[in-house]
Amino acid sequence: MRKHKLLIASLVLGVAAPAFAGPREREERREERHEERREERREERREWRGPREAPPALREERWENRRGYTYVRGRWDWRDGRYNWQPGYYERERVGYRWREPRWEMRDGEYVRIDGGWIARGPAIAPPAIRVERFEARPGFVWVRGRWAWSNGQWAWVGGHYERERVGYRWAEPRWEMRDGEYVEVGGSWEVVP
Questions:
Q1: I need a surface site. Which of 9, 68, 143, 145 has the fewest CB within 10 A?
Q2: Domain span at residue 148?
Q3: pLDDT, tens digit, for every residue of 70-82?
Q4: Long-range contacts: 75-80, Cβ < 8 Å, 24+?
Q5: pTM more than 0.90
């Protein structure tokens, strides 16, 4: 009789009565608790973010040139909510590659580290003169002339081809530009006609 009165009182007052809830209600409450915990974990993940301040200046390191090796400078890493210094080290050189230093960039209000690594070295000499190619005009198509590409440490010719014409656009030829002591290809693309 007492349990019955408690159940009626809880229903009238809108208070859940866990002791008298059926299996379905208990399962629903369990799912709600799980969802609340999941949401709390999501919030914690959203709150944990990378550094909002720029890393300190790089420390001065002493090192000597070693034949066949590249010195990888020390860097700041973000761990346990603060910057930690990682000293530099020697890395065996790789033929045809150069070392790119890691760096920090601001993205969406926080600093993100862009890892360093070995990247292919581009050509240090200009490409040969463009070859003359014979082609015929085709209605609805544009001739994209051939170009020199850097492949396996040497210049290789890539023949021209037809591209379907795009209304309101024109083809801008690719070109090679000298940047930081090596040639970099600025790829061809379709540009809007002014």
A1: 68
A2: 141-192
A3: 999 999 999 888 9
A4: 75/101, 75/102, 75/113, 75/116, 76/104, 77/113, 78/50, 78/51, 78/111, 78/113
A5: no
